[in-house]
């Protein structure tokens, strides 16, 4: 990889570190594991930077590495689910009434990986459909279909929970 592209990659990672962290955290829900995934993703990106075709595809290329690294981690850790202190504190009852979109978070976690990834990349990472297709290495129409189905499932799940609360 030429030095110019390498410097651009390092600058991109530095400028987007919060987005990359948030993306990895959306999969593993643990601060320490998220940092490990981000670090491993950066290492993979720098060591395989020769496969980067142009600086225009850098964002989707790197996001694909983060998503794949996160999924690999989840496959390895499938049987053991550890929760860090911060997450445990967040979900424990407190004296103040702080509403966080727990229902949405729970509904997202129940979606299959492919659907959840599309929703997270589209609405939380603000990627375009074309970029999501590139990240997931899928056809644009497949991404659109998954997004539509995921939103439909979320809508059904959220409305069912609302009606159960009303009863």
Automatic annotation (TrEMBL):
Organism superkingdom: Bacteria
One Pfam family here: Sigma70_r4_2
A molecular function GO annotation: sigma factor activity
Ranges where the RNA polymerase sigma-70 region domain occurs: 13-79
GO biological process, one term: DNA-templated transcription initiation
SUPFAM superfamilies hit by this protein: Sigma2 domain of RNA polymerase sigma factors, Sigma3 and sigma4 domains of RNA polymerase sigma factors
UniProt keyword annotation of Transcription present: yes
Positions of the RNA polymerase sigma factor 70 region 4 type domain: 103-154
Keywords: Sigma factor, Transcription, Transcription regulation
InterPro entries the record matches: RNA_pol_sigma-70-like (IPR039425), RNA_pol_sigma-70_dom (IPR014284), RNA_pol_sigma70_r2 (IPR007627), RNA_pol_sigma70_r4_t2 (IPR013249), RNA_pol_sigma_r2 (IPR013325), RNA_pol_sigma_r3/r4-like (IPR013324), WH-like_DNA-bd_sf (IPR036388)
Family: Belongs to the sigma-70 factor family. ECF subfamily.
Protein name as catalogued: Sigma-70 family RNA polymerase sigma factor
Species in which this protein is naturally found: Paenibacillus piri
């Amino acid at each position: 990889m030429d030095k110019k592209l390498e410097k651009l990659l390092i600058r991109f990672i530095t400028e987007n570190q919060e987005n990359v962290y948030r993306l990895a955290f959306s999969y593993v829900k643990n601060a320490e594991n998220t940092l490990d995934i981000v670090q491993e993703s950066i290492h993979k990106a720098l060591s395989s930077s020769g496969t980067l075709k142009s600086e225009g595809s850098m964002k989707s290329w790197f996001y694909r590495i983060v998503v794949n690294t996160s999924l690999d981690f989840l496959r390895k850790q499938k049987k053991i689910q550890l929760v860090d202190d911060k997450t445990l504190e967040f979900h424990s009852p407190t004296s103040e009434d702080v509403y966080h979109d727990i229902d949405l978070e729970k509904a997202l976690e129940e979606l299959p990986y492919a659907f959840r990834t599309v929703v997270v990349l589209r609405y939380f990472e603000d990627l375009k459909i074309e970029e999501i297709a590139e990240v997931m290495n899928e056809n644009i129409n497949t991404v659109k279909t998954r997004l539509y189905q995921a939103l439909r499932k979320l809508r059904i799940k959220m409305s069912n929970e609302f009606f159960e609360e009303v009863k």
